[in-house]
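Quick one:
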Amino acid sequence: MDHGVDLDRVSELKRREDAHFVDKHPKSLALGERARTTMPLGVPLSWMAFLYDHPPLFVDAAEGAHFTDVDGHRYLDMSLGITVASTGHTAEPVVRAVADRMMKGIQFHLPTEDAAIVSEELARRWGLPKWQYQLSSTQANTDAIRLARLRTGRERILVFEGKYQGHLAELLAVLDEAETVPEYLGVTDHDIANSCGTFSP
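Output:
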């Protein structure tokens, strides 16, 4: 169907922008090639290779709401580490608090007073009395699904198209026509059997 779009012109603009990207990011491209020898797709987490329609940028440093890549280009960071850095990069009070905590020990299989302090503050701010902590969205969603199943008595779940809901196998489903299929290699039909399908808003 003709929508009045000059597809040849669009293709030429895309080709030109791709060439411009390659020209302006030699260090990122070189690091990507180097990293492929020790990391699949040259990235620490495979999804990073598919975020954009160009090779991944390699970050050098960040401050506040901006980061700089290894080629010296500065960007407004609209992700902030998928909200991990929601207070901004290298915020001095956060850096100081993390450094103080690390000087006392990094990780334990026991609670600390900090855990009680943070939980009390979260309860005060959000009006929810009890708090538990996880190290990833996969762990958090695994527990959320189990709690929902316990509360509702239902087994099936709904997965939204265009989402990231963790790497729990039963969440790695996509809609292909009217059929729910595995999103990644190694995920089986059995893994996603409890998904009731994906929803595309």
